[in-house]
Amino acid sequence: MFIALPLPEAVKEDLARFLEPRQEAGLHGLRWTMPAQWHVTLAFLPDLADRHTDELFERLQRAALRRNPLVLRLVGAGAFPHAGRAKVLWTGVEHDGEELMRLAGGVRAAASKAGTVVGGGRFHPHLTLARLGVAADVTRVLDALQQYESPPWEAREVALIASYLGQGPNARPRHEVRATFALGPPSMG
Questions:
Q1: Which of 6, 60, 73, 89 makes an SS bond possible with 94, Cβ 3.0 to 4.6 Å?
Q2: What is the pLDDT of residues 104-116, one digit of tens each?
């Protein structure tokens, strides 16, 4: 499972239009991610036991209520671990101030306090564009992706998503949203 910020359809469509001609001219061996699965991961939960699910839901709800909606934008490109021996291509997430970092820290703490392990290292806001089976130099591809800027959007919710490996199209993961949590206190209206 993972905790993520979903992308609005308009942003997915904009990014897909930008990527399409670049994907056709790109490096062989890149496995491009599918737009339907694009998201900004806040926390990866490699092994969530059923007994921790209810408490996780409660803690994520509280963590989301403590944070405000965020204005975000996808910008530029990069690679993990680096361009010369890349395994992952990504586009960055531009955000205003520390709210995104606080949100990521809050949902990670919520998951940990609920008794589940939070995987991965330090939070680096990004959206995964492609993966490589064998590390390669992607400098040329990154140069072509570097000028990308999405339209800004307001992230208003966090999603807890289950990932079922190999059950999606072309043996890719199938994602299922298990719950969403609104950011910020409920509006009085």
A1: 73
A2: 999 999 999 999 9
Q: Is 187 a domain residue? A: no
Domain CATH for 86: 3.90.1140.10
In a domain? residue 188: no
- Specify which residues 132 forms β-bridges with: 30
Domain residue limits at 76 = 2-182
Give the chain's domain count: 1
Residue 75 in domain: yes
What DSSP string runs through the chain? -EEEEEPPHHHHHHHHHHHHHHHHTS-TTEEEPPGGG-EEEEEE-S---GGGHHHHHHHHHHHHHTS--EEEEEEEEEEES-GGGEEEEEEEEEESTTHHHHHHHHHHHHHHHTT---BSSS---EEEEEEEEEEE--HHHHHHHTT-BPPPEEE-EEEEEEEETT-SGGG--EEEEEEEEESSSPP--
Whether residue 104 lies inside any domain: the answer is yes
